[in-house]
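Homework help board

Subject: predicted structure for assignment chain

Our instructor gave us this sequence and asked us to write out the predicted structure in token form, then describe one feature. I got the tokens but I'm not sure how to describe them. Can anyone check?
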Amino acid sequence: MKQTTPTTAPRLALPDIQGLLLRGYKHFDFIRHLIFRIDNVQGVQALCQALLPEHGGPLVVTDSTTWKSTTVTPAYRLNIALTCTGLAKVIGPANYETVANASPTPFLIFDPGAVADAPNIGDVGSSGPTNWWPTPGWQLQTPPDLDNDFDMVLSLYARTPAGRESYCKTLLAMVPAGAATLVFQQDSDPLPEGPNVIHFGYEDGISQPRIEGAPSGTAASAAPGTPPGALLSLAAAAPGDDPDDRPIVPAWNFILVASTPPPPPGYNAHPFLVNGSFGAFRVLYQDVEQFNVLIASDPNPEKLAAKMCGRWRDGTPLEVSPDGPDPSLKGFDLTNFQYWERSTHQQGPPIPSYPVNGAAGEDTGDIGQACPYASHIRRSNPRDDLSVNGNAGGAANAVQHRVLRRARPYGPAYVQPDQADRGLVGYFIGALLSQQFSFVMSQWITANGFAQYDFSPAFPYGDGSGYDPLFGPSPEWPNTGAFQYCMDNANPQDLNSYTQVPAASPNNMPQLVITKGSLYVFFPSITALGLMAQGNITS
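My token output:
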């Protein structure tokens, strides 16, 4: 099925949309996230005024207009987001209630916040809120007050460590005295293997949502969602051919709009929210030592790593190259694939087909032979697989649950066993958190009952899907079994076709990712930032 941008695609107001929502910030690899408690509302309103792009201050919030990567001045990117408590402080409780009451679906879980949603998405036990915001990131002498200490996040992106230090000094000097207290700080630096490699060794950030009406991927604009090397595919495409097979996600999934034809049921966005969005700010510890021990327990460690992720560590999809990494795959070759029916430009072997419950003439595509149902990329984006809970429409329906990822590694590279804190920090963005981030985490990443045709015996209840193995079993599910993947050329409907991991301790799958911090935040538009400076919601 050829995907082209609809002629009716909305014209997004790029100067009014914060850059992080539509831009990948390529080459801005040295990041600092600063979380503040608001102590004086008038002081923070003055800061909002100073950060407006038209204000001409020493630093301003970055919008989504195009820049030329060869002439970047100044060499930083800056974005602002507020929690529900921070927004209520800046615009006032009455205005906040007006916006919230007019926008029940966008505020459904933003208003209660990340702490309230934690049990729903698997943030329990060691990942629970009482263990969030550890040192050395925590800046105060007193323990975190989860209800009152977290109001505003400023995220600064620079090209060099020295640039980050210089711009951060300038930014902190812009905060009026007594206006806000810095409570948490977390840097992100690229690993030696490359800016898109995470601590588990995977090339990350390959498949981002393709947003309707967003700026196209060009050498000058560094738009998100365009995989590495894809510009060559675009340049070489035949007239009328679109080399990008990814479904186009309606813009309202990521940029709040007043109305959209047709409006989603209950969507509703107060005018103050228009051109803004929501996101989950996450600090996720990654246990590299446990991960290394786990994959070393398999006769083929790299195959196990690929089965757990759904990609080989260089980014090659299992669905396209099940037998090993394929360095010849470039650009859209890494994103053009589906699980049940080949996409237009999909590379690699035919998708395996299996009869549904033995019925002749009713076949599925890959039900776990090449790419396990539990694998991370299949869990987070099941594409055209109709058997997945909440994905009855296949690729056409999966787009409503897509999440825009703006997360990078933090902490030192892993060299040998140590106690260093390392992992992933950043944003997971969507206009409707309840249908995007929270849905994916609660229904696809951590919950059993993911897909009806998963025959893996790894999980003793329901359909066998269990949980995403890169996250590991929730502490709520002790002794819930192992991760299992189908052996080469075997039938995934045969329970004897699976390799069990860990083989010696089937009920001892480690938890590899632990939540160390979480906030649900609102990214205001540039217009809304100006209104916040006035403590208002209408101009």
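Reply (TA_rk): Your tokens look well-formed. For the description, you could write something like this. The first helix runs from residue 41 to 51. That's the kind of observation they're looking for.
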